[in-house]
Design the sequence.
């Protein structure tokens, strides 16, 4: 079965500082990986996804993530945090093809990002 | 706006009752997914439908059922409600049943008293 672990349920940064949100996955074969953001009282919005093209994936709002197979990681970064980045971020995994995990997203527990002025 | 709509936005009901949550996918999307978000369980996949047929099942209780209609909208039925069913229920849709981007609706917040 696939799983995702997000290290750190809360991350706090200053405005303008680097944002680093950690995600490690467990899968027998490299899966598809996603980062979603959830603002208060809203649904989930896709930030970026990895589907086996380039290992460095660029997303919306200046975020990017790098797929590292050797480390089974897919960490999310942003060079300079903005107040509007304060939200909860979810890493998710799904199987490439076949099997009971096909299509469904398995989410990590989420990381709440706080940005201080 | 993802293009996925969910109604109602909020639902307050009593234990033992039955409720129906409705989801309309993005135009052209054939696949609908239901997820439950709660403080103790996080975001959990419940069930997926593709073009009217059940495609995958997750941790969905027997008291819960879903269906997708010919016009592709979907309903999630929750019965014999318990306090622990209080959660945010999300619907998502994607173009196909393959690992494609899933677009999430705003959710229905269910409170069971």
Sequence:
């Amino acid at each position: 079965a696939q799983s995702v672990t997000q290290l750190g349920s809360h991350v706090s940064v200053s405005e303008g500082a680097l944002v680093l949100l950690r995600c490690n996955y467990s899968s027998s074969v490299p899966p598809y990986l996603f980062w979603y953001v959830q603002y208060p009282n809203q649904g989930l919005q896709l930030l970026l996804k990895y589907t086996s093209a380039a290992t460095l994936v660029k997303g919306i709002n200046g975020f990017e993530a790098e797929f590292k197979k050797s480390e089974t990681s897919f960490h999310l970064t942003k060079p300079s945090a903005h107040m509007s980045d304060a939200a909860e971020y979810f890493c998710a995994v799904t199987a490439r093809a076949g099997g009971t995990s096909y299509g469904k997203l398995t989410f990590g527990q989420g990381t709440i990002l706080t940005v201080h002025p | 706006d993802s293009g996925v709509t969910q109604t109602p936005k909020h639902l307050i009901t009593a234990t033992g009752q039955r409720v129906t949550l409705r989801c309309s996918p993005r135009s052209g999307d054939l696949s609908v997914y239901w997820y439950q978000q709660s403080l103790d369980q996080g975001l959990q996949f419940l069930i997926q439908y593709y073009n009217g047929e059940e495609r995958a099942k997750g941790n969905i209780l027997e008291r819960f059922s879903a269906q997708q209609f010919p016009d592709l909208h979907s309903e999630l039925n929750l019965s014999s409600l318990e306090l622990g069913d209080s959660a945010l229920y999300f619907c998502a849709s994607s173009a196909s049943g393959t690992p494609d981007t899933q677009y999430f609706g705003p959710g229905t917040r269910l409170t069971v008293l």
